Amino acid sequence: MRKDDALLILEMNSNGGIEKYSRENLDDPLLPLQYKANKNDFLKKWWDERSIPIGQGRVDQMLIEKGLLGPGDYLMKNLGLSLTDYYWIKPIESKLHWADVNLYENDFKENILIAIDSSFKTFSPNSSLQGQLEKSWQIRNGKRYLIKGNRDELSCESMNEVFAALLHKKQGYDNYIPYSLIKIRGRRYDYGCKSPLFTSQDKELVSAWAVLTSKKKPGHLNDYEHFIEVCGEHGIDTIQLRKDLEYQIMTDYILSNRDRHMNNISVLRDAKTLKFIRMAPIYDTGKSMFVRRTLPMRYADMVNQEVNSFCK
Question: Which of 12, 42, 167, 221 has the fewest CB atoms within 10 Å distance of its CB?
Answer without folding.
Answer: 221
